[in-house]
Design brief:
Number of domains: 2
Number of strands: 0
Radius of gyration: 19 Å
Mean pLDDT: 86
Distance between the termini: 51 Å
Number of helices: 3
């Protein structure tokens, strides 16, 4: 009712879509974590070449003080 499109998007559309977006992000992350074993065994952990999200998280957690 006279509301600008940008405001409509942020006030109505985005809040309604957030549960689906969050679920998709969780499923994508879980899928990436599932590739951990195969990637480590077959390709290794080469930054910029064969590093997946799971390997990046593993490397971060295994480094001293998480740096």
């Amino acid at each position: 009712l006279g509301c600008p499109p940008r405001r409509t998007f942020f006030r109505i559309t985005l809040p309604l879509a957030l549960p689906g977006i969050a679920a998709g992000a969780v499923l994508a992350f879980a899928r990436a974590l599932g590739e951990f074993g195969a990637t480590v065994v077959l390709a290794g952990n080469v930054e910029g070449s064969t590093r997946t999200i799971a390997l990046a998280v593993y490397t971060l957690l295994e480094s001293p003080a998480g740096n």
